[in-house]
Amino acid sequence: MIAFILSRHAPPHQQQLTERSLLMSFPHIHVVHVQPRGMAEQMNSVLSLTNDPWFLTLEAGEMVRPEMDEELMQLIQGLKEPVAGGIIQYSNLHFPKPGSSPVPRGPLLWFRDAVMARPNAGFQEAACFPFERYFLLEKQYELASRYEWLEIITDSLILSPLQTPFWKKETEEWKFLSPLLQAVSSRTTGVGTDALPEEPMVTIVICAHNDSAYLPWAVRSVMAQSFSQWELIVIDDGSTDDTKCVIQQLPKDTRVRTYLLEENCGKSFALNYALERARGQWLLELDADDWLDPACVDTLLEAAQDRPDAIAVCAGHVEWTERMNKQLLYNGVKLPVPPHSSRSLIDEAMPVAPRMFKVAILRDHSGWNMEAPFEGRLYEDLEILTRLALRHEIHFVFEPLYHRRIRSTSITHRQQFDTYRQWRTWMLDQIRKSAPIP
């Protein structure tokens, strides 16, 4: 049997304590220390080369008591059909249970063949999963749709005394991430088998330009929606990285359509390209490096039904700051701030996401403005909202339904005063020509 010890930046002596306790309980176990970067990749590499049917995962600092070996062997020998593995349940009141952390510990025992079974073989690697510290839980939830998880009732596992640093905001992070992990896992099974017979109610549009590292996570969030009567249009806007290859590897779902633009034409052009092909009554924008809450489409549509005069429905979002290693840190909830007039949208210059528009109204207004400064490549979100707000009601939902990634390598054009001032002057002139400023 293999035992993986996840160091997660734990001091060396904590890793050594875990290893020593394992060897006392399992004298013939093969211990593998997993380094903090690329944990899933390391484990997948080892698992691809072994035939051992079972393996363990422990956090550095955890310790097992000698009786753990016999307990697990009895559990395994009593199995009558394949399972995913085993999750710890604590038996005695005197044994310390997990502390204040809201995050489940995750499985202790894993069945290798279940983990490595296709189509989702192995653990989700960091390139497609921006929350690497939860990769074990992600796999646990994914396997739960196909296998049973056993409860290991024991007090033979002593938890690590190490705590997650406060600056990682573990409670908030888990609050917003856990619904997506569980929703993704419960809805990915069978993807690509049958299309829904109904016409889509919502067209979700992703315009990608050199976003190969982010696109899979955005698409996963679409697949996880609680409302399933959608279609997804993915447009590769002249990417020069491997976005095209990533698109070809997306789930084979007949609700997903992809298009390739040979040249980079800009966001407004790509959105109009999608608008021409949209079959839904509503169009929802999703940036390729962002993702949706599982209830996003459902909640926006419910709000639209409550306000039949609204031609657009927007909501709040959660901000995540991308670190240099591509992992994300929670940065707070951003809710819409009234009033929502055309002038306030320009003056505040704050990102509004998500944005869902009535397709018929977008077509009546000729979609996104290619004649705007910078060929509609900048501030296209503010331009369309401001233009529509002059003549129509935009409804806002005051809860976060979208997750926005703040990339460390990107340029926030709203912070470039001269660029935004030029666009703002032009936009105010357009408003004056159209109607008095509200």
Automatic annotation (TrEMBL):
Matches recorded under CDD domains: Glyco_tranf_GTA_type
Glycosyltransferase 2-like domain location: 203-316
InterPro entries: Glyco_trans_2-like (IPR001173), Glycosyltransf_2 (IPR050834), Nucleotide-diphossugar_trans (IPR029044)
Gene3D superfamilies: Spore Coat Polysaccharide Biosynthesis Protein SpsA, Chain A (3.90.550.10)
GO molecular function: transferase activity
Keyword terms: Transferase
Protein name, per record: Glycosyltransferase involved in cell wall biosynthesis
